[in-house]
Each structure stands twice: as structure tokens, then as C-alpha cells.
Design goal:
The chain has two domains: 190 residues, 2-Layer Sandwich (Fructose-1,6-Bisphosphatase, Chain A, domain 1); 129 residues, D-Maltodextrin-Binding Protein, domain 2, CATH 3.40.190.80. The protein is 32% helix and 23% strand. The chain is built from nine helices and 15 strands. Strands 4-3-5-6-7-8-9-10 form an eight-stranded mixed β-sheet, sandwiched between helices. β1 and β2 form a beta hairpin. The chain binds 2,5-anhydro-1,6-di-O-phosphono-D-mannitol and magnesium ion.
Length: 339
């Protein structure tokens, strides 16, 4: 019987490594451990309705938000796996105020640091709505053998070695880029492996979905309000109105739009005057994926990947998605900012 060839994440990583002259396998080991952590979090997310893992754990994270139990689990799991890889010397995560230094001798020799949001959209878990993990990997600037320092984690997004996300949705997928296109792997739970299901993802240049929390409409910048009205109008060729879709999970909203064509928007609002999403571990990784799949990511005027982070938890307005939609939005922002 003809068997369809399946490429697992680990095979894919090893094959890619073989294509890079001088590659030592360190980065491959790191990604392998990201995959293991993703499977562990998948397992817990899947049984979230069955066991007492839901609900607030009673602590408040550095940004004053109640931490959910699964946030705590995901944070610990990804940190443990990155530490176990021996290739990562420290992490910055949404759940930790400062950087976390892995000071075991093996880890200090690691060349990489990771920035991550271990469980994005976690307020959705108790309603069985998709959540995600977002990650970003940099080569450290500090000397190998020393403890990493904060500036290792505050590099511009263009310095990312790799970035991606895991979406715990109707199936669990790991999507990543190492700067040579975007590849998506779906978890086949029968064999416990991420299998290549979406090779070299390209997002449509034109999309028809816009994703924004319209409950904040009255607080949006004028350019965003006008753009939303533009999306809702009928054009001469019948190309609009566009479709509005908003889950409230960045990973799930972005992922759907990347596949179908669309634009994700989180502008500055009264509640979040700098925007809500965090540059270092939410916007930069998604921006890297956006660009590598042929899309764009901007804070309204500037390329997200070129923003210089001032602090680990810095927030920025964030717009990412199909190229033509992003450009059109930027036209609106520029025009209405200048009148
Ligand atoms: P979180 O990291 O605390 O889960 O918050 C980030 C989430 C994103 O996933 C999502 O895009 C956004 O917050 C939704 O915010 P809002 O509820 O204001 O629309
Ligand atoms: Mg988040």
C-alpha cells in the first residue's frame, strides 16, 4: 500500500540543519525542546475541562493580571525544556518581571536566549477557546560562559534567529520561521509528532478579514475608525464589505488571517495608551512570521521588526497581516494623523 511520506518537525529541523554549512546542531536541539514543551502544554490544555487545572491560581503577574493555572504550567514547562536543552542561557517571559537566568554551567555555555508568552489569550481557556504560545529566539550578545544580561533580550526584531507560535486549537499546530520561509506542523496525536502540514506558507497579498476589538471603537485613532468604515463599505467592484472576525487570542486571530488573508489590529486605546500587545514576546515573533509569509507588520508608521525595545514588557500598537490591507491602513493613519 502506498504510504504518504510524513516529515516530522524533528526530521525537518535536522534536514534544514544539514543544509547550513558549519551548523553544529545547537539551534536544532533548542527547537526540538520547544516542540516537547508544546506537546506537554497541548496535553494539559486538552484536559483543561476535565481536571482542576482551570481558574485563577491566586497570584498576579507583573502586569497586574490574574494568572491562570495553565499560564503558570505553560511558563514552567517552556522554561524547563529550554533549560534542559542546554543551548539556552536564559528567558524573558510575560509571567516574569525580569529576565530569568539559567545559571547551571551547561546553560551558561548556551548561545541563545528566548523571549516568550507561554500562554497567550489565557482568559479564553475556560470557554474552550483557542490559546497559543508565542516564542522568539536570539543569539546572545554577552559572552558565552557568562550569565546573560537584559540587553541580550532587548534586541531589535530583525535580529531574531527564529520565531513562531503554537496554536492549541481544533488541532494543535506549531508554526515557525528561521528566516527562510514559514512552515507549519500539525500535531498528530496518534504518533505524538508534529508533522509538516503547511510547507512554505504564503499569506494572500489581499485579504478580506479584519480583526479588531470593536468594543474600543470610540477610543481608536481617527485613521483606524476610518479604515474600519472603509472595510464595511461596498466598493464599485463588489469587493467589500470585508468580514469581521475577532477571537481575542492573538495567535488564533493572526493564524486564521495568515491562511485566509486579513489584517489584525490592536491600536492604542484609553485603557492601553501604548497599545496592549507586548513588543518583545508578542509583536516581534508574529511580525517575523508575517514578513516571512509575505505579509507586513507595523506600529502604524514603522516596521515592527525595527523598533528598539526599551524594556521587556513594552507595549506597542500592532497591525499585522496581508500586504495590501496593511498598506491601506497605513495610508489612512498617515492621512488622518496629518489633518
Ligand atoms: P494576554 O497575553 O494577557 O492573554 O493578552 C493578550 C491578548 C491577545 O491574545 C489578544 O489579541 C488581546 O489580548 C485581546 O485583548 P482584548 O480583550 O482587549 O481585545
Ligand atoms: Mg499574551
Amino acid at each position: 500500500m502506498f504510504m504518504h511520506k510524513v516529515t516530522t518537525l524533528n526530521q525537518f529541523i535536522v534536514e534544514r540543519q544539514a543544509e547550513i554549512p558549519g551548523a553544529t546542531g545547537e539551534f536544532s536541539r533548542l527547537l526540538h525542546h520547544v516542540g516537547i514543551a508544546a506537546k506537554k502544554v497541548h496535553r494539559e490544555v486538552n484536559k483543561a475541562g476535565l481536571v482542576d487545572i482551570l481558574g485563577r491560581v491566586g497570584t498576579v503577574n507583573v502586569q497586574g493580571e490574574n494568572q491562570q493555572k495553565l499560564d503558570v504550567f505553560a511558563n514552567a514547562t517552556f522554561m524547563d525544556e529550554l533549560r534542559a536543552s542546554g543551548e539556552c542561557c536564559g528567558v524573558a517571559t510575560e509571567e516574569n518581571e525580569g529576565i530569568v537566568v539559567f545559571d547551571e554551567e551547561l546553560c551558561r555555555e548556551g548561545k541563545y536566549v528566548a523571549c516568550m508568552d507561554p500562554l497567550d489569550g489565557s482568559s479564553n481557556i475556560d470557554a474552550n477557546v483557542s490559546v497559543g504560545t508565542i516564542f522568539s529566539i536570539y543569539r546572545r550578545k554577552s559572552a558565552v560562559g557568562e550569565c546573560p544580561v537584559e540587553s541580550d533580550f532587548l534586541q531589535v526584531g530583525t535580529e531574531q534567529i527564529a520565531a513562531g507560535y503554537v496554536i492549541y486549537g481544533s488541532s494543535t499546530m506549531l508554526v515557525y520561521t528561521a528566516g527562510r520561509g514559514v512552515n507549519g506542523f500539525t500535531l498528530d496525536t496518534s504518533i505524538g509528532e508534529f508533522c509538516l502540514s503547511h510547507p512554505l506558507v504564503q499569506t494572500p497579498a489581499r485579504g478580506r478579514i479584519y480583526s479588531i476589538n470593536e468594543g474600543n471603537y470610540v477610543n481608536f485613532p481617527v485613521g483606524v475608525k476610518k479604515y474600519i468604515k472603509y472595510c464595511q463599505e461596498i466598493d464599485e467592484e463588489g469587493g467589500r464589505p470585508y468580514t469581521s472576525r475577532y477571537i481575542g487570542s492573538l495567535v488564533a486571530d493572526y493564524h486564521r488571517n495568515m491562511l485566509h488573508g486579513g489584517l489584525f489590529l490592536y491600536p492604542e486605546t484609553n485603557a492601553y495608551p501604548e497599545g496592549k500587545l507586548r513588543l518583545v514576546y508578542e509583536c516581534n515573533p508574529v511580525a517575523f512570521i508575517a514578513e516571512q509569509s509575505g505579509g507586513m507588520a507595523t506600529d502604524g508608521t514603522r516596521r515592527v521588526l525595527e523598533l528598539v525595545p526599551g524594556s521587556l514588557h513594552q507595549r506597542v500598537p500592532f497591525y499585522a497581516g496581508s500586504r495590501e490591507m496593511t498598506r491601506k491602513l497605513m495610508e489612512f493613519l498617515e492621512f488622518f494623523n496629518n489633518i
